[in-house]
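Morning F.,

Quick status update on the modeling queue. The single chain you submitted on Monday has been processed. Sequence for confirmation:
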Amino acid sequence: MIVVAGESLIDLVPEGAGAVPPSPLAPLVPRPGGGPYNTAVALGRLGADVAFCSRASTDAFGEALVEGLRAAGVSDALVQRGPEPTTLAVASVGPDGSARYGFYVEGTADRLFALPERLPADVRSLAFGTCSLALEPGASAYEALLRREAGRGAFTLLDPNIRPGLIPDAADYRERFAGWLPYVSLLKLSEEDASWLGGTPAEWLRRGPSAVVLTRGAAGLTVFSAAGEVSVPAVGVRVADTIGAGDTVNAALLHGLADRPVESLDSGAWKELLTYAAKAAAVTCTRVGAEPPYAAELTA
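Structure tokens below.
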């Protein structure tokens, strides 16, 4: 089983966001979101055995988020519930489909996540990232889960998915990020994340991960590992928006790896895996909001 740990929220996406240029005054449409949530849903749609580990509200948005997990085949057995409101993210979409966000996070349910006493015995992989590792008190609980499960030998993927507006102390966050790396098997991040963090793949590899996957938007994907540096191009599509594309890459990497150790992948295997991830992300980009593909869409 794969466990995805982190926040769920509601993205408020401009109606007609696929238009060029989108109207800044367009009505906002609520859509399920949050990097970890999107990753879990994408894994479920790809056919993985996956569970979501988080805390969700009992309000109407929270109920819709949990129902979205179930509809995608994701187990909600590890989802804690509470009466606090659901986090909201207001998205603005640029002419190229890229998204920027404003967040409403004070007193929301996902911030109150508590470290679970144990995970199911069949958990082999975990994914972490985004707002959940930046917002206390939940951030410390997610960090403790990362360290504990990595310590028992689980495979871990980290996608920092930096949201600068939610990070009050950049230097402190960068220090914490460096402290996570010894517990990370696969680090996946965007070029924008890498620039904000201020490091390099070579530096991060020395600190612990076996591989670093860098997403480069329209330029494609690159991995840095013991097999060397391998790149694949992006798949050309008409972009509605890029919401959830990086999260879909997370899911495709985890699902495509299956039980293979990252260390065992040669350059050919990495090219195949990155091509699969690029194709999955491209499908997501053709749709408004985070709508990852189903397995059948990637084999057609």
